[in-house]
């Protein structure tokens, strides 16, 4: 497992997967591709994502994890993540089960559900209700 894609969104739970994904990256000597995904051009969302990115990159740095960062936006966030993952030949996508809900995904299901159904790459999905405590303080 050489490449792990870790998407960040604007939910509070988005960072809960990071300590566990870092443990996997250490175990396999993986590089993490941290991507921010957003469907909006609002500056408040952009600022929030950049703050999350800074926190996560600092965590990667502190744990000697090689990483790359990409900021992406567009219509269907699931398709954006999957397209990016294919483009970097990712071996795993690490997501949270409880993700942002929007009117556009009421018929299609949550982003996590879409991801699992559409992905041709393994998806590691962390349910937020099981991760009340982090593996380490994040």
List the helices and strands and how they pair.
Elements: E1 3-8, H1 18-28, E2 31-38, H2 43-62, E3 67-73, H3 77-87, E4 92-96, H4 111-118, E5 123-126
Parallel strand pairs: 1-2, 1-4, 2-3, 4-5
Helix pairs in contact: 3-4
Structure at a glance:
The chain has 138 residues and is of the alpha/beta class. The chain has one domain (3-129): Rossmann fold (3-Layer(aba) Sandwich).
Task: Describe what this molecule looks like in 3D.
With 138 residues, this protein is α/β, with parallel strands linked by helices. It has a single domain (3-129), classed as HUPs (Rossmann fold, 3-Layer(aba) Sandwich). It contains four helices and five strands; from the N terminus they run βαβαβαβαβ. It has helices at residues 18-28, 43-62, 77-87, 111-118, and strands spanning 3-8, 31-38, 67-73, 92-96, 123-126. A five-stranded parallel sheet has the order 3-2-1-4-5, with helices on both faces. α1 (18-28) links the parallel β1 (3-8) and β2. It is globular and about 35 Å long.
């Amino acid at each position: 497992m050489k490449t792990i894609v870790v998407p960040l969104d604007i939910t509070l739970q988005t960072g809960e997967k990071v300590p566990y994904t870092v443990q996997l990256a250490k175990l396999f000597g993986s590089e993490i591709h941290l991507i921010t995904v957003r469907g909006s051009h609002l500056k408040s969302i952009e600022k929030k994502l950049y703050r999350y990115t800074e926190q996560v990159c600092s965590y990667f740095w502190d744990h000697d994890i090689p990483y790359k960062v990409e900021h992406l936006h567009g219509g269907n966030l699931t398709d954006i993540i999957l397209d990016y993952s294919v483009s970097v030949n990712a071996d795993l996508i690490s997501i949270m089960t409880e993700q942002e809900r929007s009117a556009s995904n009421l018929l299609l299901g949550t982003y996590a559900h879409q991801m699992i159904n559409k992905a041709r790459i393994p998806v590691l999905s962390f349910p937020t209700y099981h991760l009340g405590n982090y593996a380490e303080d994040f």
